[in-house]
Design goal:
2 domains, ten-stranded parallel β-sheet
Length: 301
């Protein structure tokens, strides 16, 4: 398969041009098995607006607050989602409460279906559990924790917390993290039957480093479709990749990527696919920033 990179200037308004990079694929081969629908950036076969200012087929100019220049160019059908998803937890009924000193005992005693509500404070590193409980915050509280889930951790939900990064590895499965604010990188090691969901979270102003993983959500591993879904979340600022998909079967949908910093030597991109196959990208919105939204189409080799 021969892959060529092309660069064009896309007119986004008076005296405002943004450089996009895409690939032309020679031969009837699907690029790395990606499935892409309705993301607001050009696909590998999408036509670009030529420098004369005439729109190519399937492209429309659409005004949107926060975009570079006076608008964005949208390819294909779709609707514009909000550029600032708000991680607001739905009303929830607490069945038990915990503080930083009682947390371990309360979680140990909790039974399936119970909701553990946390008071403000730093809960350190939560190492997971294997029971269908929800851990959330008390009304008006601001609990903080990091995470480290591994073999046997399954079935629980974290809702409305501040999460200082961490890792999800081994056979951990059937875990949901939603309505939460991540303040550091999270590493997910793909394994069979993962069924992990990250939904309506924020990943704002998170940086990488020379010894860190590249993505603020960094998925690694091989072996089948592992049902890891990142959706409806905000990736704003910072010089780390938004989502790094190094594993198979990752689903990336309905997210907003804005103001990602293209800062040497990190080659930061909203989405970077590095070896993963069967990746689904749909309904995402890319706005502003120095990074190249089309870098997600660059193969590793």
């Amino acid at each position: 398969m021969l892959i060529k990179h092309n660069t064009r200037l896309v007119n986004l308004g008076s005296n405002s041009w943004v450089k996009f990079r895409a690939m032309a694929v020679v031969g009837a081969v699907m690029v790395l098995g990606y499935v892409v629908t309705r993301s607001f950036a050009a696909g590998p076969t999408a036509a670009f607006e030529p420098e004369t200012g005439t729109l190519s087929a399937g492209a429309v100019v659409q005004s949107i607050s926060g975009a570079s220049g006076t608008g964005i160019v949208r390819f294909g059908a779709g609707t514009t989602s909000s550029p600032t998803p708000t991680p607001t937890a739905a009303p929830i009924t607490c069945t038990t409460n915990a503080t930083t000193s009682t947390f371990a005992g309360v979680v140990s005693a909790a039974t399936a279906g119970q909701v553990v509500c946390l008071a403000s404070g730093n809960y350190g590193e939560f190492t997971g559990v294997s029971k269908a409980i929800t851990i959330t915050k008390q009304s008006g509280a601001s609990p903080v924790m990091s995470i480290s889930f591994g073999n046997g951790d399954s079935g629980f939900t974290l809702d409305g917390l501040t999460i200082g990064g961490g890792d999800i590895t081994g056979t951990s499965s059937n875990i949901t993290i939603k309505n939460s604010a991540f303040t550091n990188l999270v590493y997910i090691e793909s394994a069979a039957g993962h069924n992990l969901l990250l939904d309506h979270n924020t990943h704002v102003n998170i940086n990488t480093c020379s010894s860190c993983v590249a993505g603020r959500v960094h998925v690694s591993g091989t072996g089948g479709t592992n049902s890891i879904t990142i959706r409806n979340s905000l990736f704003d600022g910072g010089n780390s990749d938004g989502i790094r998909a190094d594993a198979d079967g990752v689903i990336i949908e309905g997210n907003t990527f804005t103001n990602i910093l293209d800062q040497d030597p990190y080659h930061s991109d909203p989405i970077q696919i590095y070896g993963g196959t069967g990746v689904t990208i749909r309904g995402n919105l890319f706005i502003g920033g120095g990074a190249d939204p089309m870098a997600m189409w660059q193969p590793v080799s």
